[in-house]
Amino acid sequence: MVESNPPLLHDFGQLLLRHPGETCASCHRNARDCVANEEMVILEECELPLIDLGGLRSKDEGERRACAAAICKASSEWGFFQLVNHGISLQLLAEMRREQVKLFNEPFERKAACGLLNNSYRWGNPTATSPKQFSWSEAFHIPLTKISEEACYGEFDSLRKVMQEYAAAMQELANELAGILVKNLGHQKEGVFGESCNGSTCFLRLNRYPPCPWSPEISGLVPHTDSDFLTILHQDDRVGGLQLMKDSKWVAVKPNHDALIVNIGDLFQAWSNDVYKSVEHKVITNAKAERYSIAYFLCPSYDSWIGSCKELSSIYRKFTFGEYRKQIQQDVKMNGHKVGLPRFLR
């Protein structure tokens, strides 16, 4: 079998050698016997709540209120929603995708060793303790503070200009959505976020999910919740793979060419006292097609306090974002997976 770029086959094979008896979840056979398995797991496909953000720009106050209410309702009931007429040009999204594909098409050695994008390149899952914890993917997880630095790009100078424009557009959209969600609970955004969420604290993550011979047994990204306030995802509009937990079962999200996907993160769930939901989600692999996505993470500074909007009846104790991230890292190192908000219950 031809080695993959990055060397996911090698890394996953090492896990199999250490866990020879582990079986796959759906076919109940030894994982090594599932190469080129053609069995497909049939899942319900869902249409996420679809919100036309153009309603917020309407001259009609009723339309503006209805749009804001739809965002808050979806954040409470689903933790996920889709946005159309979001204000980010489809041309910019297409340019960013072209640059992303060009970057990931580079040889593995160059991506891993040349210092591209603040040495933010990652692949697989170095903390995986068993095959089921392995993520069949590669990514650049980039602080926004670094995207303007020419030294991060090497020969990929065309990526810098597009990424700066992309990040600025996503930042503006994320702030607008956060403001609506905060106001819905009777607060002013400035009083909650202040200067804690800005271009110096947020991240972009460029993702690629290569074809996987063990699909759909191996996750492209293992089940998790996001550790930020909210995430804006520009997913692949051809190749599906995103799944989320809804009513105690996994449902597949149908790709939409014109839409961005927004999901609530752990910090917003804690701050809203569980009004908004940070929902578990994952990415499944595809045996034949690669998949790309770009995620924007609205994060505060590490020393920012995350308190509940209802302090007297708060479900969670007060904590800093830095404390939260440190606890996640410890749990992953010890247990192979994130525990998250349950660690911070009163």
From TrEMBL:
Belongs to the iron/ascorbate-dependent oxidoreductase family. GA2OX subfamily. This is gibberellin 2beta-dioxygenase. Its EC number is 1.14.11.13. PROSITE patterns: FE2OG_OXY. It comes from Camellia sinensis (Tea plant). The lineage of its organism: Eukaryota, Viridiplantae, Streptophyta, Embryophyta, Tracheophyta. Pfam families: 2OG-FeII_Oxy, DIOX_N. The keyword DNA repair does not apply. Transmembrane segments: none annotated.
